[in-house]
Amino acid sequence: xxxxxxxxxxxxxxxxxxxxxxxxxxxxxxxxxxxxxxxxxxxxxxxxxxxxxxxxxxxxxxxxxxxxxxxxxxxxxxxxxxxxxxxxxxxxxxxxxxxxxxxxxxxxxxxxxxxxxxxxxxxxxxxxxxxxxxxxxxxxxxxxxxxxxxxxxxxxxxxxxxxxxxxxxxxxxxxxxxxxxxxxxxxxxxxxxxxxxxxxxxxxxxxxxxxxxxxxxxxxxxxxxxxxxxxxxxxxxxxxxxxxxxxxxxxxxxxxxxxxxxxxxxxxxxxxxxxxxxxxxxxxxxxxxxxxxxxxxxxxxxxxxxxxxxxxxxxxxxxxxxxxxxxxxxxxxxxxxxxxx
Length: 341
Hints:
GO biological process, one term: isocitrate metabolic process
Domain Isopropylmalate dehydrogenase-like: 8-332
InterPro entries: IsoCit/isopropylmalate_DH_CS, IsoPropMal-DH-like_dom
Radius of gyration: 20 Å
Number of strands: 12
CATH superfamily of the largest domain: Isopropylmalate Dehydrogenase
CATH class of the largest domain: Alpha Beta
Low-confidence stretches: none
Number of helices: 11
Protein name: Putative isocitrate dehydrogenase, NAD-dependent
Family: Belongs to the isocitrate and isopropylmalate dehydrogenases family.
């Protein structure tokens, strides 16, 4: 055990409820017996207050060194203010693949039991990156940039994942009936890649129809491949099938770095009250453990999480319980310890 590897991880607690859910998740991860060297950095408004910059250079250097980060929610101003921290980090480290599994937890009743979807979202191109300008007062424009390189590599990422994990079907979601050049390029690149994976069924749906199809029958889908903005919207829609954004994980993956994050907001209205649900960040941390080749620990944490949800004795208020953030973490740790004996 003394020779056990120590994982250096950049830690971005975020703001609002971020530090609380991050602290809970860290306690759970350390209860696995794995060793971590956490390199903690502020981002967003907190960083600006301290360092007069929204993302300190030290944070960038840490991610370049560790190549993996765990990130809590960071508030993004609406209609003004500083640029999205999430978008900035994704662009900086070319984290081109956004990975969001959507799967029900036991004990959480929804109108859609048994959902098992994988959302693959291109993460560095399209309207979502925010290439905007004001032409003249009262007239603004945004540039949607799509490249063959970007479209091809996200398609290959999706099909590689399907092959490795036995997924049976991928739908490319688009608006090529209107966006004939940009979304048309995405379709051409994806069709070409699909030909290399004959064991994976391939289909295409227009994005607005997809939203209708999802709420009517999400079970017809297995994996969804989307450009950046569509992926942002549809992945949030799909989270509702399993209980909402407070339960689902998110990963931003590139060739040289990966950032794992909760995809919900910073909820400043409940910050500091010890009532926030750390499940989304914990599920993201489970993805991080797999990325670090710690599959056994990931399986243990996932089993402990499911045990707590199955028993329904120590859940937070958002999912029908009355437990605090730290009491929930204690319950997961206790489940880990029981499984380890």
